[in-house]
Design a protein that fits this description.
By secondary structure, the chain is an all-alpha fold. The chain contains 6 helices and no strands.
């Protein structure tokens, strides 16, 4: 499992290269819905577009809807240690870092389902 990507875009492009990008987008939409947060993505969203939309959504949550932001991290199961390690005080940089953590966690879910055959079960 390749989880050593350094950027959100790198991770998304890798997922696309091994035909798991669509499943990653589905998982992301599913978890946002579970957290009662709308994530409006075009049907054919590109990795670059997804990265931008996700970062903007996280920025808005951080600035305007912090309890919903925390709930999203809980629903997605981003480890507190991971987002506590983001050292920046710049909200744009924090949104970028958290977006990457979210994508990494969603990628883990998709990869594990694909690799261990639990494709038919919901996460």
């Amino acid at each position: 499992m390749s989880l050593e990507h350094k950027t959100s875009l790198e991770l998304l492009q890798y997922a696309a290269s091994i035909a798991l990008y669509e499943k990653l987008v589905i998982q992301l939409k599913k978890d946002f819905a579970l957290a009662n947060i709308s994530l409006n993505l075009p049907d054919e969203v590109t990795p670059t577009g997804l990265k931008t939309i996700l970062k903007e959504k996280i920025y808005i949550l951080l600035m305007e809807r912090f309890p919903e932001y925390l709930n999203l991290l809980y629903v997605i199961d981003v480890p507190e240690k991971a987002f506590s390690a983001i050292k920046s005080t710049n909200v744009v940089e924090v949104a970028e870092g958290v977006s990457f953590l979210i994508l990494k966690r969603e990628w883990q879910k998709v990869w594990l389902k694909q690799s261990y055959g639990s494709r038919d079960r919901d996460t």
